Amino acid sequence: MICYDEPLYRPPSEANSLIVQATLGCSHNLCTFCEMYKSKTYTERPIEKIEAEIAEMSENVSIRRVFIADGDAMALPADVLLRILEKLKSCFPKLQRVSIYANPGNLLKKTPEELKQLSDAGMTLLYLGIESGSDIILKKINKGALYVHHLEAITKAMDNGIDVSATIITGLGGKSLWREHIEQSAKLVSEAVPTFLSTLSLMLSPATSDTFTGAFEEGFEPQTDSGMLEEEKLLIELIRPPRNIIFRSNHASNALALRGTLPGDRKKLMDKIDAALRGEISTRPDWMRGL
Ligand code: SF4
C-alpha cells in the first residue's frame, strides 16, 4: 500500500484516479494566496521509489486514470516523466489518461519535442492555475508568471498534443480591481483557448491573509458572494474563443455550480447566474465551502 506524504491534493475531476506522488510540494511555492504546500520543501522523489510504488499497485489492473502529484510535478525532467509513463503503461493495461499539475515555468523550460514525447507516452492532460490574466494582479500575488507566459505555455502544451485544464480565481482582485481582473482573464482565455476552464473562489486562510492583502497598497476589500457571481457572469460574457472550451465551476469553494460549453452555452450559464443573484435558485452556503 502506498503511503502518501500529506497533505495531498488533486483536482476534483481526478477523484477516481490513482495518485502517483512523484514530487513533494511546489517548486514555486510563493503565491501569496496559496498555502497548499507551505509545510513542504520541494523535493523530487527518487525514480526507483516511484517505479516500485507503481509496481506495487499493478495487481489493480482496472486502473484507467492516473494523476501525478504534487503541486507541479511537471517540473521533473522529461526523461524522468517518460520513465514514469513507461512504467504506468506496462503495469496498467487499461490506462487511458495520465494527468499532472504544471505551471508556466515548467512548460516553457521543456522543448516542443519533449512535450510531444510526453503526450505520445500517454500524458494527455495538465492542470494549470492561471488565476488571473491581469499582470497587475499576477505581480501582486507573486505568481511568477505574467499574461504572456501563460499564453505561451498553454499554446505550447496544446500544440504538442497535451490538453490544458485552466483555472481562474474569482475575487482575486477584490472590489477595486475586479473589472481589470475579469477583462484580462477573459482576454487571456479567449487567446489561449484551453480545453477546459474552471473557476474557484478566493478563500484566504489566517496563514495567507496578511501577505496577500499586504500587496494591495490601496487596501484590499474582499468581494461579496454576489460580487463573485457578477465576476463569473462577466467572465462568461467576455470569453470569445475561436473553438469550444468546456466550462465548469464545480469546485468546493464556489457558491454556484455551473457547467456548459463556451461559447454555445453562454446565455444559459449567464441566465443561471442571474437566477442565483435574484435568489431564485439556492447557492452553497459559506460554511459548506472550502478548498
Ligand atoms: S504555483 Fe500553484 S501550488 Fe505553487 S504556490 Fe502557486 S498556486 Fe500554490
From TrEMBL:
Entry annotated with the keyword Metal-binding? yes
A single GO molecular function term of this UniProt record: metal ion binding
What superkingdom heads the lineage? Bacteria
Does the record's keyword annotation contain Metal-binding?
Answer: yes
What cofactor does this one take?
[4Fe-4S] cluster
Q: Which UniProt keywords apply?
A: Iron, Iron-sulfur, Metal-binding, S-adenosyl-L-methionine
Q: Where is the Radical SAM core domain?
A: 10-248
Q: Which InterPro entries match?
A: Aldolase_TIM, BchE-like, Elp3/MiaA/NifB-like_rSAM, rSAM, rSAM_sf
Q: What is this protein called?
A: Radical SAM protein
The organism's lineage is: Bacteria, Pseudomonadati, Spirochaetota, Spirochaetia, Spirochaetales
